[in-house]
Amino acid sequence: GDVYKRQTQSTWVIKSSIERLLAKPFPKIAPLLYKLEGDVSRYECEVAESEEAKESAEAALKQYAKAMAAAKELSPIEPLRLEIALNFSVFYYEVLGCAEKACEVAKRAFNDAIECFSNPEDATGSKESLAIMQLLRDHMSAWSSEVKIEDK
Fold first, then answer.
1. Region class of 97: left (phi > 0), else alpha (psi between -120 and 50), else beta
2. SS3 per-residue string spanning the chain
């Protein structure tokens, strides 16, 4: 109803701002903006009616996938890259109900980051990176037990 209409108008403003910002040549701007657009679409799912929720979920999936692709240019221990993986995995789990895919996304990001920490030249991770990695690991632990239950 009205809440969804106001949210849709706000989303349009955000998305048009994102399009303008994507034209700027900053290495972190594209993954950040795709992530934010995915986040907005994910949040829309929570307040939308069934058909609008489905459209918002499809939009979030596309934007998170774009964010993941754009983030490959960043170091695996870059907090933004880890945040994108965290949010994408939470989206798979909470919105799409796919614990297996959520674990896959989280595990890939976590393992890539761990690999960087094992190379002293790349090991410039921040406390923020370590905190996000801990969240990824916590979620993987919780979700993997569900995947095992679903497999049985």
1. left
2. CHHHHHHHHHHHHHHHHHHHHHCCCCCCHHHHHHHHHHHHHHHHHHHCCHHHHHHHHHHHHHHHHHHHHHHCCCCCCCHHHHHHHHHHHHHHHHCCCCHHHHHHHHHHHHHHHHHHHHCCCCCCCCHHHHHHHHHHHHHHHHHHHHHHHHHC
Give the pLDDT confidence score for residue 19 in this predicted structure. Answer: 65
Mention every residue, 6+ apart, whose C-beta is less than 8 A from residue 25. Answer: none
State the Cα–Cα distance between residues 95 and 93, nearest whole angstrom. Answer: 6
Condensed to tens digits (0 to 9), the pLDDT of residues 113-140 reads 998 877 655 555 578 888 999 999 999 9
